[in-house]
Specification:
mainly alpha; two-stranded antiparallel sheet; 4 strands; transport
């Protein structure tokens, strides 16, 4: 990716852009100075088709020439005013980020009355409101479904939002906190703390045993003691700790893949996951509606 972000490319684009504009200006000037010779003196170039169709040698229409000139002048104005020449920020101070923020501010102002009526409603009541649910679904589809899936069932590395297995807690307050501030989940490589390669395999089988999955009983028995290296986060019983975002290893729900091989990989290499904060994208009222929608996905028995 660094090949496309070094200083060569802005310079290259600047040279190509200026060359194109000044090349057009030069071509226009040269054509205005060159007087074409007519072999027959009748303003034709000597080409004849179908006995009497002759190609005329007329100059460009004036309106066409002026269109070229206006285009060139506009291009020069654009180069000076906008960030189009390398690192030059442009005299108008325009940026994509600034325009996005302005447009979002205008859009939020327009839709503020729509969300205002939902702001004071409790989450459980809002989750059953059909209109609010439809709005929450649109927000989810446009912003969350890329990771969690259109059905919110997630995928490898992205949590399922329709069950009751919550990493940081599934209360309305925790969901709001997660959407607003984002989350960073990190499991460090634990192979050195667990022991040798055989110890890692034994711990993997112990984890499979406490989650009710197929495992090697002998290895699981040996791995129970070594699991103490993991207990600081996942708890002595392996049920995890939502306060720090450590996963429950006993429920048979696997965020990064099931089976001995997948668990060994996580112990050896660890992993870091991040959900970006959404507070800059959504207003508090929008987050409130989105929270109600997400909360309703796993508490939908009363909100069909």
């Amino acid at each position: 990716m660094s090949d496309f972000t070094n200083s060569f490319w802005p310079i290259f684009i600047t040279v190509i852009s200026l060359a194109g504009v000044f090349g057009c200006a030069l071509l226009l000037w040269l054509t205005s100075k060159i007087k074409a010779n007519s072999p027959n003196g009748d303003n034709t170039n000597g080409h004849v088709w179908d006995e009497n169709l002759r190609e005329m040698n007329n100059p460009l229409p004036r309106w066409w020439v002026w269109m070229f000139i206006i285009t060139i002048v506009f291009s020069l104005f654009y180069f000076v005013s906008y960030p189009s020449l390398g690192a030059n920020p442009g005299k108008l101070g325009w940026t994509q980020a600034k325009q996005y923020e302005q447009e979002m501010a205008v859009a939020n102002a327009k839709i503020a009355p729509l969300y205002a009526k939902y702001a004071a409603m409790p989450i459980d009541q809002l989750a059953g409101n059909k209109e609010a649910k439809a709005i929450g679904e649109r927000l989810f589809m446009n912003n969350c479904a890329q990771c969690h899936g259109s059905d919110a069932h997630g995928s490898k590395g992205f949590p399922n939002l329709t069950d009751n297995d919550w990493i940081h807690g599934g209360s309305p307050e925790k969901i709001t906190e997660t959407i607003t501030n984002g989350r960073i989940g990190m499991m460090p490589p634990m192979a050195a703390a667990v022991g040798n390669e055989e110890d890692v395999k034994n711990v993997a089988n112990y984890v499979l045993s406490i989650s009710g999955n197929k495992h090697d009983s002998a290895r699981a028995a040996l791995g129970k003691e070594k699991f103490a290296a993991c207990a600081a986060c996942h708890g002595a019983d392996g049920k995890g700790n939502q306060a720090i975002g450590s996963l429950n290893l006993t429920d048979g729900i696997w965020l990064h893949g099931a089976g001995e091989e997948a668990i060994i990989k996580r112990i050896n290499h660890g992993i870091t996951n991040q959900m970006p904060a959404q507070s800059a994208k959504f207003s508090p009222e929008q987050i409130h509606v989105l929270t109600a929608y997400v909360w309703g996905l796993s508490n939908n028995a009363n909100h069909q």
